[in-house]
Amino acid sequence: MEKIIIxxxxxxxxxxxxxxxxxxxxxxxxxxxxxDKENKINNVPNLKDVDTTCQLLKGxxxxxxxxxxxxxxxxxxxxxxTEAPYDxxxxxxxxVMVLGPLLARLGKAKVSLPGGCAIGARPINLxxxxxxxxxxxxxxxxxxxxxxxxxxxGNRIYFDIVTVTGTENIMMAGVLAEGKTIIENAAREPEVxxxxxxxxxxxxxxxGAGTDIIEINGVSRLNGGEHTVIPDRxxxxxxxxxxxxxxxxxxxVNCIPEYIEPVIIKLTEAGMKIDTGxxxxxxxxxxxxxxxxxxxxxxxxxxxxxxxxxMSLMSISEGMSVITETVFENRFMHVAELRRMxxxxxxxxxxxxxxxxxxxxxxxxxxTDLRASASLILAGLAAEGETVxxxxxxxxxxxxxxxxxxxxxxxxxxxxx
Length: 417
Ligand code: UD1
Hints:
Mean pLDDT: 96
Distance between the termini: 6 Å
Strand order of the largest sheet: 22-23-1-24
Number of strands: 24
Bound molecules: uridine-diphosphate-N-acetylglucosamine
Number of helices: 14
């Protein structure tokens, strides 16, 4: 199993380029199922979750060609299998997003139930309720969701909780449904907008993406096209924290500052000097990290996917910080590892109270989930001594070449078998 070894203490300096967004690439790749025409998708990051999505598509009989420059060409004209097996879904929950496109295009889908994961129970009840509202017949059999519908019929769907992949799944189903579908309390994440724009360029009629009411007028068929995945806002935020935690000066390019506004605001409050342009963010630390409180919520609030990384930073801040996690019920798995590095963190329910310590000390660490892994790498960059992070396969699900990008900024980081 691979490990990442970090010799802490190097100040990061230089320029880093952000890759395409994982959470936009996955639904956009899967949306190709909706048409028998070819789709070219650009700026697809080279990640384990993208590999899994391509495997899922190939397993369904879809032709997938990947080039080294981040372009993926998908041709689902010969799609012939409607099953997403447990082995794939278990490694990537986002696989449940095949349900919407398969149901819409082929009238049926059999997808393994994802089960729980390290950060919480994460049910898909809202996805299923949405498909039922569109007229699908849903059964649960032997750990699989079996969904069937002759042709989906548009309807009004209200989500009790804002769900990102739920909104995307229903949106992909709604584009080929008969009549109008309205999603209320929809997720407003930029990745939802990227998917809606992609679908519209294929001939769909979606209005309101980016607001909490999305209106879809069903069409009978979609075309192919060429699409581009937006930059990854969580990778952007992670490099911003990397600059801050090492007392560095880093320019992050090929990003969209507007997408990561809450992190810009919180890092500014924490004492960083931040300059932004149309597609870059420069983060300059001044040696002091002030304590700030954060509360995660759906977009446009502070993203839950940046909570762990921010906690690493607050571990060495001057004072006390309160971090409240409102999106997932169990997303503090990184706390135990940060404590092993000397962090002073107390957790009660969905709140963590962090009393900053002057220095973290290196330790052998175990990654538990994707963003927690990133928080441990960040802590290692700032710690005294050599940190070894194992189970880095979590990291490879969502960060493209992270150790290469960090070492190009001067970090002493390497991967070993
Ligand atoms: C997506 C992101 C993930 C991010 C999360 C929240 C992708 C591939 N993943 O995950 O990186 O952390 O949004 O921003 O885009 N819920 C239900 N029932 C449902 C669906 C969700 O109760 O049917 C709950 C979840 O347990 C969670 C909350 O709703 O507490 C939000 O989850 P959701 O937005 O659905 O997360 P994902 O779409 O899985």
